[in-house]
Amino acid sequence: LLKSDLGAEEYAFRWGGEEFLVVLPRTDRDLALQRCARWRDLFMKESLPGITDLQLSFSAGLHVCGAEPVTLRSAVEAADMALYQAKISGRNQTVVSGDYTSQPHRE
C-alpha cells in the first residue's frame, strides 16, 4: 500500500514487525500530515480475507527535518517517540515529534 503511493525519490522500509520507516524528501510538515491521513484512510479500507471482526488502524510518528543536518538515528528516534505517543494516546492518529502537547492529527 505504501510503496504504491510513493513518488520516485520516496522510500518505505519495514522497520520492525508492524512498523515501517517512510522517507519523504523535500516534504513539509503539512504535506507529510496529508500523506499520513491518506495512508490511514487507505489502510482502514483494507480487509483481510475471512476476518470480519477486525478494525485495522494506522498510527504514525512524524519527524520533519529542518535546515540543520540530523543523523538518521536521531530522526528515527524522534519519529519513534512520536509514534509511541500516538499509540498511548489512543492509536489511529499521527503525532509530530515535538508536538506532544498539541492535539493528535486524525484527518
Characterize this entry briefly:
The protein is α+β, with helices and mostly antiparallel strands and 107 residues long.
> Order of strands across the biggest sheet?
1-2
> How widely separated are the two ends?
18 Å
Count of DSSP strands? 4
- Please count the helical segments: 2
Helix and strand content put the structural class at: alpha+beta
Proportion of strand residues: 5-15%
The overall pLDDT average reads 88
Features:
107 residues; alpha+beta; two-stranded antiparallel ribbon; two-stranded parallel ribbon
Topology:
Layout: E1 11-14, E2 20-23, H1 29-44, E3 60-62, H2 72-88, E4 94-96
Parallel strand pairs: 3-4
Antiparallel strand pairs: 1-2
Structure, explained:
- The model has no long low-confidence stretch (mean pLDDT 88).
- The strands form two sheets. Strands 1-2 form a two-stranded antiparallel sheet. The protein has a two-stranded parallel sheet with strand order 3-4.
- It is an alpha+beta fold and 107 residues long.
- The protein has helices at residues 29-44, 72-88, and strands at residues 11-14, 20-23, 60-62, 94-96.
- It contains two helices and four strands, in the order ββαβαβ.
